[in-house]
Backbone:
């Protein structure tokens, strides 16, 4: 008359829950740090995209041998230029870099100075593109790209 045991005992279930709790306590802080690092990398990537797009548009305008305020076409899209570089709005650097206000990956201001946030939940962690002047090329400013402000 042996009764066949099926299922788990209460002690076995408690041990498994405790082990899962310990693993969660160790893994969760690491995941939070990875999210912050990813957001910072995304902001640095946006800065690089703005810089590259500005340089490519400038080079395209020089190759076309047109005046510094004449718009150019990049990949079928018209890029508004000023002083030899894209303007700091959606029609300029937004088109050249393909970071627009309608982007799903970034939150962009669309107007001067052109500002790109890594996501709407962290607007203080951003990159700003300021148009070129007659005496200086455009500037790209990274604001609060640190773990404390992008977290």
Residues:
């Amino acid at each position: 008359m042996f009764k066949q045991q099926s299922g788990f005992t209460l002690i076995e279930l408690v041990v498994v829950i405790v082990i899962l709790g310990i693993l969660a306590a160790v893994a969760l802080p690491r995941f939070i740090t990875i999210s912050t690092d990813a957001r910072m990398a995304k902001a640095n990537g946006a800065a690089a995209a703005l810089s590259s797009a500005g340089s490519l548009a400038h080079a395209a305008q020089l190759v076309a041998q047109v005046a510094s305020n004449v718009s150019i076409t990049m990949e079928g899209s018209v890029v508004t230029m000023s002083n030899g570089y894209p303007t700091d709005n959606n029609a300029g650097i937004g088109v050249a870099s393909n970071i627009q206000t309608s982007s799903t990956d970034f939150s962009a201001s669309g107007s001067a100075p052109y500002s790109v946030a890594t996501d709407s939940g962290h607007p203080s962690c951003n990159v700003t593109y300021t148009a070129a002047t007659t005496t200086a090329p455009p500037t790209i400013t990274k604001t609060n790209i640190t773990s404390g402000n992008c977290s």
User: Anything to note?
Assistant: The helical segments are 10-64, 90-97, 147-150. The mean pLDDT is 85. Strands lie at 72-74, 77-79, 81-82, 85-86, 107-108, 114-117, 126-130, 139-143.
